[in-house]
Amino acid sequence: xxxxxxxxxxxxxxxxxxxxxxxxxxxxxxxxxxxxxxxxxxxxxxxxxxxxxxxxxxxxxxxxxxxxxxxxxxxxxxxxxxxxxxxxxxxxxxxxxxxxxxxxxxxxxxxxxxxxxxxxxxxxxxxxxxxxxxxxxxxxxxxxxxxxxxxxxxxxxxxxxxxxxxxxxxxxxxxxxxxxxxxxxxxxxxxxxxxxxxxxxxxxxxxxxxxxxxxxxxxxxxxxxxxxxxxxxxxxxx
Length: 238
Known about the structure:
Blueprint: H1 4-38, E1 52-61, E2 66-75, H2 80-96, E3 111-118, H3 131-141, E4 161-167, H4 169-174, H5 179-196, E5 200-207, E6 225-226
Parallel strand pairs: 4-5
Antiparallel strand pairs: 1-2, 3-4, 5-6
């Protein structure tokens, strides 16, 4: 026979267990209601995606040492700087793909930035040593640098522009060496920029934000490239 005190103890423990279960259930229910109240019932919007637009690329081909015009539908962001970088990124992705007609490592990450300054009144008047160019663009690459007096230039909103393409050092160091292959890369970049942004009349190149003598030992990076002259007409080489 079970002693009376054990029966009473069992009954007390049973009642305590039931009470604790009820309390835990209420706490869980309150926490669930609080969590649901904090959530926004409205459906979440999909992230904004830039619409596809037609972009013209001038793709280099080592087999015939020429540029071929190709069209691609690309999601292009707003703003000329971002659009230029996206377009050049696609061009360099083509060169980094397997069996590319103009194989160059790096892809879209090879372009650090693309920005613009108003072109001088006389095309090609940027000094060959690039000192004025670096003075004009130093505050864009290094915002804390002292700003120089602007040169006499065309209207920055409607006039012709110089595009400054800042390439990465890893792209330059990995680029195949040779005058023809280096020149094709630079001309394809210039022609592609001018085809999509016709206001670009001149192109200059920097590597890691500084002037570099050549791309990979041959093609001159200290000169100004006349963008319109790099665009070949049908059946012509650049």
